[in-house]
Amino acid sequence: MNRPIPDPGSFRDPNGRIYHCGGKVYRTITARARDDFEFVRGTGLIERLVGDGRVIASEMVLPSSHPGVFDDNIAHVVEHPRLPFISYPYEWPFPALKAAALLHLGIQIDALDAGVALSDASAFNIQFRGARPIFIDLLSFRRHQDGEMWAGHRQFCEQFLNPLLLRAKCGVAHNAWYRGTQEGITAGDLRRLLPWTSKLSRNILLHVVAQSAFQKAPMAPGTDGKALLKTRFPTASYRRMLTSLRGWIETLEPADTGKTIWQDYAKSHSYADDEITAKQDFIAEFAQAVTPELMWDLGCNTGDFSAVALGNGAKYAIGFDMDQGALEQAFARAAAADLPFTPLYLDGANPSPSQGWNERERQGLAGRANADAVIALAFVHHLAIGRNIPLPDLAAWLTGLAPHGVVEFVPKQDPMVQRLLALREDIFPDYTVAHFQHCLSQGAEIIEARTVTQSGRTLIRFRRLETGR
Amino acid sequence: MTTLDSLLHSMPAWLPADLANPAFAYLDPGTGSMIVQLLLGGIAGAMVVGKLYWQRLKSFFGRKGTASPAPSQDD
Predict the structure, then answer these.
(1) Domain-by-domain residue ranges, chain A?
(2) Terminus-to-terminus CA distance in chain B, angstroms?
(3) Does the CB of A228 have a partner CB in chain B at under 8 Å?
(4) Half-sphere exposure (CA, 13 Å, Cβ side) for A227?
(5) ipTM above 0.90, yes or no
(6) What's the pLDDT at A256?
(7) At a CB cut-off of 8 Å and minimum separation 6, what does A239 contact?
(8) Hey, is the C-beta of A237 within 8 angstroms of any chain B C-beta?
(9) A71-91 burial, b if ≥16 CB within 10 A, otherwise e?
(10) Reduced to 3 states, what is the DSSP secondary structure of residue B47?
(11) Buried b (16+ CB within 10 A) or exposed e, A354-375
(12) So what's the pLDDT on residue A71?
């Protein structure tokens, strides 16, 4: 067996960590966490939560069958199934963060009934399969002692509630801020931004205003927060707090800031029905030929073409877009049809970087590039003309993401490119389909190029050249 | 000392003070969050909060007593 490699993002909890080995994912449980782990297992809670898809499955592995491979003081080792893709809360659209928040609260409510509590409330402990959130941190489950406070309340507010409120009450998406802090948004920061009318709400008064005020307020001389730790918090109050938060968060929706540019694009696009059918046919043929286990859909909009690929042999799709309205519709589509499709926020010109502790805690997009197919429809012109990214760089980036792909080239005469050029000088003499194909052919074989609209939009299917990689 | 003052100062004697709170092992819950929970936790919890801030309140109204800042992760 290869030596397991500790996951660089799994270090905060001393009760165990994640290891990767031979394509498998293991979690260790150290001796100090043995009692809690065995208690929680004994309640049958995890089995029930795994059964209804809310917690990731885990299979006990005998540490003795892997002598010397994990660190010392290991009491148990479990193996988890590998997820198709790891995403982070700063990549989730609003409805995904909301679904994750509700999952966390629902699990806590059920756990309390079994005498179990969650020791933290990190949003990074939740991942997605399609539009369904799944809790992945087995070690967050601990025995709950009667009278104990909710240890993760502040973290829940910072990582779930406050980012949702930022969008719901201020109309600002959480993604950029969250990516910057990685720990979410503090009550103090949000309190300064919330409109005063929203502060009349009992929930906001309590979880944002009061929490922030008491966080800063000086206490009596000679006292500190430790006195608070010794105070009893009745379990009934704990449960009421969770159910009340759940009821409130269920009602939160993005503030009405008007329609976003692209959310109606699938209905209002600039080409005819038979042209869209031609695009769909091309993607269907591609999916049938490649049958990707995982496909990335760059500029996924509301997920039309991911849905086509999934209906034609693709097993799982991750969609990326930067339009919040389109992403919300894509998420609703995936949730309604239970599609294996997860739409995520991404600015193609500024993808998620590797960051966090030692710049390795959270992987950048390139480090997670595990797709075996990529489609980029109506995407390239936004980067090439909208963001001045040179075509050779774009072609190299795209062919580097996956071994198979389809890219749409939208020529200058197309109304959408004309719109991008309307208020600026055309400094793109090389922006032609011939030049783009030449750029792609530096790293890939062009399998087919098909013009699908009267304006000259061309779909190019490529297969990456593996020599020299 | 006022009646309320003496009541608040006698509280630790009748509140359970033996909770180990193992769930806080590696996460700082924040004083703001704990106080919010005490306020939600009924009269006993609210009185603990009252005790912690009584001195502060008194000094605000010009009586003796200085306050020490709470540990803050928020700012």
Answers:
(1) 5-80, 89-251, 265-464
(2) 35
(3) yes
(4) 22
(5) no
(6) 80
(7) A109, A112
(8) yes
(9) eeebbbbbbbeeebbbbbbbb
(10) helix
(11) bbbeeeebbbebeebeebbbbb
(12) 67
User: b or e along A221-250 (b: 16 or more beta carbons within 10 Å of the residue's beta carbon)?
Assistant: eebebebbbbbbbebebbeebbebbbebbe
Residue type, A415: P
Q: Which residues are A28's β-sheet partners?
A: A77
Q: Which chain B residues in 16-55 lie under 8 Å from chain A, judged by CB atoms?
A: 16-42, 44-45, 48, 51-55
28-47 in chain A: CB under 8 A from chain B: 36
User: Which of A333, A288, A335, A336 lies closest to A315 in space, CA to CA?
Assistant: A288
State the pLDDT at residue B6: 47
Q: Per mean pLDDT, which range of A67-71, A262-266, A287-291, B65-69 is the poorest?
A: B65-69
pTM, 2 dp = 0.90
Whether A215 and B32 lie within 8 Å, measured CB to CB: yes
pLDDT tens-digit readout, A155-192 = 999 999 999 999 999 999 999 999 999 999 999 999 99
> Does A416 score more than 80 pLDDT?
yes
Q: What is the largest distance, in Å, between two alpha-carbon atoms of chain A? A: 78
CATH number of A265-464: 3.40.50.150
Given a contact cutoff of 8 angstroms between Cβ atoms, the answer to whether A130 and A339 are in contact is yes
Size of interface A-B (CB pairs under 8 A): 178
Min distance B60 CA to chain A CA atoms (Å): 12
Long-range contacts of A251-259 (CB under 8 A, 24+ apart): A252/A98, A252/A164, A252/A165, A252/A168, A253/A168, A254/A94, A254/A167, A254/A168, A254/A171, A254/A324, A254/A328, A255/A167, A255/A168, A255/A169, A255/A170, A255/A171, A256/A171, A257/A171, A259/A325
Neighbours of A336 (CB within 10 A): 9
Q: Give the Cα separation of A425 and A120 in Å (integer).
A: 53
Q: Is residue A360 within 8 Å of A281, Cβ to Cβ?
A: no
Residue B50 · residue A219 · CB < 8 Å: no
Q: Do B41 and A219 touch (CB under 8 A)?
A: no
SS3 B59: helix
Task: State whether A230 and B24 contact (CB < 8 Å).
Answer: no
Give, as one character, the DSSP assignment of residue B68: B
Return d(Cα A161, Cα A242) in angstroms, integer: 12
Kindly report the average pLDDT of chain A as a whole number: 92
Going by their DSSP bridges, the two strands A24-30 and A59-61 should be labelled as unpaired
